[in-house]
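Note to self: keep these together.
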Amino acid sequence: MAKLILALLVIYGFYLLWRGPRRYTAGRPIKRPAATRERASRPLPAALSFDEAEARAILGVSTGDGPAEIKAAHRRLVSAVHPDRGGSEELTRRVNAARDVLLRS
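Structure:
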């Protein structure tokens, strides 16, 4: 009986080595990095502060649009002006700041 238990433990050990390390356990929520959580509470830089009307003009959304439309417009614009796609960092900063202004108000 002891040999059987020992053999099962050895087989289970080899299985764990074969499977490799697990980053997340099933059922446990994945926590976002602290930098992502802090972004919402960070104030905008003075150079990128503008009012709600200017932010709506940058994103191209109207006054009655809700958070879903604002996020969709932001996603569409960032995919066009992102530095990885040939855009500039300044445009990306302005689009991100406009999104932050509209979602905070």
